[in-house]
Amino acid sequence: MQPFTIALPEERIDRVMDRVASYDWGNFPDAGGWSAGMAKDTLRRFADRWTGGYDWRAEERRLNEWPHFTADVDGSLIHFIHIRSGAPSGRPPILLLHGWPGSFVEFLETAPRLAFPERFGGDSAQGFDLVIPSLPGYGFSAAPQKPIGTRDVARIMHALMTGVLGYDRYIAQGGDWGSTVSGWMAHDYPQACAGLHLNMVIMGHAGLKYETDDEREYAKAQARYRDYDGGYSHLQRTKPQTLGFALHDSPVGTAAWILEKFAAWSDVPRPDGQPQLEAVYAIDHLLTNIMLYVATGAITTSAWLYLGNTLKGNFPLERPVTVPTGVAAFPDPVFLPPPRSLAQKSYNIVRWTDMPRGGHFAAMEQPELFAEDVRAFSLAIVG
User: Fold this and answer.
1) pTM for this model (two decimals)
2) Which residues form a coiled coil (predicted)?
3) Percent helix, percent strand, percent coil in the chain, to nearest 5
4) What percent of the chain shows pLDDT beyond 70?
5) Number of other CB atoms surrounding residue 287 within 10 Å
6) Is the dihedral of CA 150, 156, 162, 165 positive or negative?
7) CB burial string 45-78: b at 16+ within 10 A, e below
8) Which of 219, 222, 225, 166 is nearest to 192 (CA)?
């Protein structure tokens, strides 16, 4: 384990900016708004900011204010932030796990609220140590030699927490792929995983039955998602390399691939069906997340997790999770929260909160609500 400082090579930044600046907008057709995917005018606005005011070095300095580390974890080089709080000795830390197309930056507005509640009018005794990694193949974590699944990632994250950092117990929190990884951690390592907190419940257990009207309606909604919104997933879990060649040297293309998901999955205003990203997110915050895919080559290797999960058969869980579980059911416009009756067949749910607002990227969209629920659940579990 060694300290890590983010310092992208100048030539890499220059190439990204040159590619954005030279994008041929004039010959690109406009389908009109968001009716066929990413809106041209919105993407152009982001690109103009990218080359006309966005400062990666300033963002880099801001990111480096956090304590970054890398470690060899079972043969995988993993990047993570490790925050020591004023938590009572022996309190388990919270592991915060991102998904795709997010990154560790999703949690940087939430982290101080969880680690240092006294800065926000709370009690320092209610703080938690935090571990915020980049998943393998994402950001500054090295790519695996070949695609791996979420159960493999769960093993790596468990080894990080117990073998590298020396914690006996931990609380695992996740959304998107993070929910699947943390779910496997609770499933495979219940002696170490003291609690599981999910802001997305997508993985059930083998033999799960949809028995009530609400549960059957949810199953139909999931089928509609796969038909209308699941094209990206099908491509990434079958032909990620083909997609990678298209996006690897196209920052604008990568931005479109990522921003369309933020627009579709976030709880943002949609006048006349047009999502207003800037009503919830700062453009620079979204551009920094995109840079972690563009400037590191992660846009290709991050998609390997989809293929690896398919090849390894990492859906569904083999059996229900017995670890105490909390669910923050944010009104994600695409990945709808399941009925509680369905979720509790696969998880030992001890806390369920129907959130008033916030979507798929809950920690970025609603950091205060997210932190409050994670802290309340964690304190109830471990004190």
Assistant:
1) 0.97
2) none
3) 45, 15, 40
4) 100
5) 23
6) negative
7) ebbeebbeebebeebbeebeebebbbbebeebeb
8) 166
Average pLDDT of the residues of the chain: 97
Task: For 344-381, write each residue's pLDDT tens digit.
Answer: 999 999 999 999 999 999 999 999 999 999 999 999 99
> CB count, 10 Å around CB of 222?
16
CA dist., res. 80 & res. 104, Å (int): 8
Token readout for 48 is 């103009």
Q: How many residues does the chain have?
A: 383
**SS3 assignment, position 327:** strand
Find the radius of gyration of the CA atoms of the chain. Answer: 20
Q: What is the DSSP string of 328-346?
A: EE---SSSPPPPHHHHTTT
Element (H, E) at 198: strand 193-198
DSSP designation for 134: P
Residues forming the active site: 176, 306, 360
In the chain the domains, ranked by start, together with CATH numbers, are 66-219+310-382 (3.40.50.1820)
87 pLDDT more than 90: no
- Token output for 212: 């009530």
Yes or no: say if 291 and 140 are a contact pair by the CB < 8 Å rule: no
In DSSP terms, 68 is beta-bridged to 81
* Amino acid in position 188: D
